[in-house]
Amino acid sequence: MESKTSTYEDMVRQKIAERGSQGISQQELAKSVGLSTRELSIIIKKLIEKKQVIKKSVKENGKSVVKLFAVQVFEEPKLLVELNSVADIPCFSCKFLYKCNEGTHVNPNSCSKLSQWILSIIAK
């Protein structure tokens, strides 16, 4: 069963996230969620510790105002290529990699190590 505190944390985080890049002041947030500023301060402190919310000072109508912003959570990227399948490519250990380019003396078209590696892959 979910605790009352975590329910409030979810609600507060959601309200902050809804404001997006505008952010929301703690006073506005207290009014919109119906919590006392003391209760809200405790919840905000927990959300900041969990790195779900940040406080930032912004200029608004010439005044400096502290606003709350939701931290964007990005999903772990999915690897589409297994790294062991490209680890053997000779280019990654070649001392001429920084010079290698189409139309230069050192290039992929004339590289014997790359050609041998490609042929070994095809032969499998």
Automatic annotation (TrEMBL):
Protein source organism: Candidatus Aramenus sulfurataquae
Domain B-block binding subunit of TFIIIC: 15-69
Gene3D superfamilies, per database record: Winged helix-like DNA-binding domain superfamily/Winged helix DNA-binding domain
Domain of life: Archaea
Record-linked InterPro entries: TFIIIC_Bblock-bd, WH-like_DNA-bd_sf, WH_DNA-bd_sf
Protein name: Transcription factor TFIIIC
